[in-house]
Amino acid sequence: MPVFSYTAKDLKGNYHKGEVETADEHQAAVILRRKSLIVISLKSSSEKGGSFFKQFFFRVSFNEVVIMTRQLATMIQAGLVLSEALDILEEQQANSKMKLVLRDVSTDIKGGIDFASALEKHPEVFPKLYVQLVRAGQASGKLDTVLLELASNLEKQRDFQSKVKGAMIYPAVILVMMLTVMMIMMFVVIPQLTKMFSDAQMQLPLPTKIVIAIASFLINFWWLLLIGVAGLIYGAKKFLSTPTGRLIYDNFMITFPVVGNISRLVIMTNFTRTLGLLVAAGIPIIDAIKIVSDVVGNSVYKKGLLETCKGVERGLTFSSQLLALPLFPRIVGQMIKTGEETGKLDDIMYRLADYFESEADNILKNSTALVEPITLVILGAGVGFLVVSIILPIYQLSTNIK
User: Fold this and answer.
1) 9 phi and psi, to 5 degrees?
2) What is the pLDDT of residues 301-313, one digit of tens each?
3) Which residues contact 270 (CB under 8 A, 6 or more apart)?
4) How far is 54 from 48, CA to CA, in rounded Å?
5) Staple 137 to which of 54, 128, 146, 151, CB 3.0 to 4.6 Å?
6) Between these two residues, 361 and 197, which has the higher pLDDT value?
7) CA neighbor of 328 nearest in space, from 386, 402, 275, 370
8) CB atoms within 10 A of CB 245
9) Helix (H) or strand (E) holding 303
């Protein structure tokens, strides 16, 4: 029977840690609640060893969270009790991880914990933004409205991400095909031809010598190449895990030609849509800025937003702070200024999000149309070089035989 490690607190607020042996996580939570303990965290003793496996095979996708949010918002608006709605969603779930999470959240709510705090215990499924919006909905008594707005914005975010990923599919497929063809040539075709040319004792052209040298290196030192690639990946991850490394990488991503323009538009779309959602939910502007700085996904913009937050805390307007930052297009600062003056900041943010999304969509379409011929030219050049390097010595050999 599995053993679960827990962290909990009693009704007086004292913390308790220990282990409980039971059939599953749900039963462990029930046992602890019978002891008048409020569960903070509950993990199986096997979770540490299996975390790498669970990260890839036992997880909840973004799309599943979007669908669940829409269904929950619809049921709450229809008048269902929150715990009842969660129980219905749990029964419908095909994903075992999501089923366990919803069961745990429902159990917590029935035990007296508020919805936002129950969600906060599962940060791998419900990010900080999600929890904060739910908490704001609870405080204002408009949980159903907030959930509907959250579902709509998550759906827009999902569709936008699908467009960005879809634009990358064609170049990625072409690149994989090119590498596959090259590997087949290097490991299968070239070694056979090398033996034939060696037996003929002929002077090989320069392109053929280059291809044979590359094939020989890959065949004899493939392990060295693997070590080099693994070391490069490990070094890159370590470098990006540091604040300086992340800042350099993020700055490169927003300044590199074409890619930088798309990255900036994606960031602006996420920033404006998320800020609009937070403001509409009634979250104070300072808290909203801090939350959205964690959502933009770029440390350069996060640093800029945190600087504006300090100015707002001193009594300056958010729009004046953004207008002073070259990172943000002037239209953003000007539109936010209009929103501050009219009291319709959330509506203006949504309009800006639609504008930036449209701009990003147009650039993605144009970039895809440009990338296709460039990719084909590169593919043709690579394959052409291989073909020429093979045909030239064969032609010379056939000429000598004649």
Assistant:
1) -135, 150
2) 999 999 999 999 9
3) 157, 295, 296, 297
4) 10
5) 146
6) 361
7) 275
8) 15
9) helix 299-313
What is the rounded CA–CA span in Å between residue 305 and residue 345? 17
Q: 186-203 burial, b if ≥16 CB within 10 A, otherwise e?
A: beeebeebbeebeeeeee
178 residue type, one letter:
M
Determine the topology of domain 161-402 in CATH: Receptor-associated Protein (1.20.81)
Amino acid at 250: D
Return the HEC string of 265-301: HHHHHHHHHHHHHHHHCCCCHHHHHHHHHHHCCCHHH
- CA torsion sign for 19, 21, 24, 28 is negative
Q: How confident is the model at residue 336, as a pLDDT?
A: 92
Strand ranges of the sheet holding 15-21, from the earlier edge strand across to the other edge: 15-21, 3-9, 38-44
Q: Where are the domains of the chain?
A: 3-56, 60-155, 161-402
Assign 401 a pLDDT band (cuts: 50, 70, 90): low
Q: What pLDDT does residue 53 have?
A: 46
Contact 278, 291 (CB under 8 A): yes
In terms of Cα–Cα distance, which of 304, 302, 307, 280 is closest to 291? 302
CATH of 60-155, one of 3.10.20.580, 1.10.630.10, 1.20.81.30, 1.20.1050.40: 1.20.81.30
**Which residue type is seen at 188?**
V
Q: Integer distance in angstroms from the first to the last C-alpha of the chain?
A: 80
Note if the pTM is more than 0.90: no
Radius of gyration of the chain (CA): 29
Least confident span in 65-69, 186-190, 227-231: 186-190
In terms of Cα–Cα distance, which of 59, 16, 12, 14 is closest to 41? 16
Residues in the chain: 402
Contact 368, 172 (CB under 8 A): no
Provide the b/e sequence for 57-71 (b: ≥16 CB within 10 Å): eeebeeebbbbbbbb
The helix/strand count (H/E) of the chain reads as 18, 3
Is 60-155's fold the same as 161-402's?
Answer: yes
**pLDDT on residue 48:** 44
Tell me which of 226-235, 289-298, 387-396 is least confident.
387-396
For tokens 């707002």, the residue is: 312
114, 60, 109, 67: which is closest to 84 by C-alpha?
109
